[in-house]
Fold this protein.
Amino acid sequence: MSSFVPTVSDPSDFAHCSEPRLVEFDSLLRCHICKEYQTAPVLTTCGHSYCSVCIRKYLIHTAKCPICSKEIREANLQRNVLLEQVVICFKTLRDDLLEKLTVESKVDDRQRRGSCEVIEIDDNVEVDDELEIVSETKKRRNVGQGGLESLFKRKKTPPKVGPLGTCPICAKQFPIRVLESEHIDLCLNTPLLEQDKDSIVPKESEHSYQKLTKLDFSSLSNTTLKQKLAKLELPTNGNRNQLESRYNEYLILWNANCDSIVPKDPKVLRRQLAQWESSLKFRKDDHDRQLDKKGWSDLIKQARNSKMKTREEQDDAQVESIDIMSTNEEDDSNLITSAQPQNCSIQASTQESTDHERVFAD
Amino acid sequence: MPPRVNTAQRRLLKEYQQLTKDCPEGIVAGPVSEDNLFVWDCLIEGPKDTPYENGVFPARLTFPTDYPLSPPKLVFTPSILHPNIYANGEVCISILHPPGEDPLQYERPEERWSPVQNVEKILLSVMSMLSEPNVESGANIDACVLWRDNREEFERRVRADVRKSLGL
Ligand SMILES: [Zn+2]
Ligand SMILES: [Zn+2]
Ligand SMILES: [Zn+2]
């Protein structure tokens, strides 16, 4: 497993940095359904937030909020623009933040006063939404003093700022001394657009994508359905069930995309749809494989360790627990064989396919 | 090129990663192989002060393609004697049932499956199921009756399962 596990980002990445409380912050920005940072987040009527695509798919099964179980309806989902901006902002800063906070504890204070780097995701790179990779394609630029660095320094040594005042032009707060001596002049002489140029977060943009509506398939002929798919530049091959499932999946991808302040190009959505279809076909093929011996023996090792811990607590170890946890190789192989499937009928019943699977598995 | 993984696989990967970092005591779980994240093997230790104590029970988790929208299935291999485990080894507890599906009518919805739940919570529920069987909504009627009417015999047979789980 170790070959690809470390490439998935996780709140616990912050656990060993100099500010481990960021673990909680990081996990707050994630969706409870997919555990990724929320993409095109939407608010439910009960005030919870999920990726638009995740909650739309869930509501097909169950018309309830996964967190609080209150009844909710797809039609009432609202875009959560601020959260999306916060997420984009944090994602952009994450790698540098992690790096700084990890290095920070080791580096001499003097060295930290240099310039501060901020990641900028290149807009021209199509980020593959199917896998979030921690090291995203990025270019770096210098931001000079201030930025994050000052933020974290402020936490440790609160600067003597004096009373704050609000700039009448940009509405940001500054120490009155700074405001009067330099900022207002500066602010007056900077065109508005110029001020936004350095912002990491995209502004809420007007885009022209309109939401798709659900189709009443019972009143649609095959030909009309194919025409609808063709109009969306989707494939028109396959049987009736496949056509309907394809439309429904695309409807969700499309409508969720409309909830984003940075919607993806329809080309990207069509690629996601194709991946979805092929993943349904794949599932049929990969039935039980053999145990990955290495991975499993690591797990056994962990089990043994945790058992050891328990045993330290109990003073008199019992014969049976010694037997199972002895370091003897034979015990491992016993465990492994007993963990293998024993009952063919159970295996068969656990391979039941969902409706969607059945549709595409021919 | 990183491997292409879909939402379910990505989430399973994450859960596995988390479990390897910080796994509750008495539980080991992980994918059977790198190629198939949808089938996990688990080892569950029998809780202390129960007849299951000292047992290490292998079980298999099978995840649906739409995980975490739908819950996984958990099957003890081989089965063990317990009021909430079917004779074929399949575990029947509320966290493994979505709120719509209602074989155990009266349970509170927050004990049900929802994408907020995860493998860790399932396995912890199984540990507490081993400590406290729920005979009112039993899956294995024989085990329920035995547990209620002849606890001594019940425990004797469970201890036999424990020895079997240790390969004795
Ligand atoms: Zn999500
Ligand atoms: Zn809610
Ligand atoms: Zn200003």
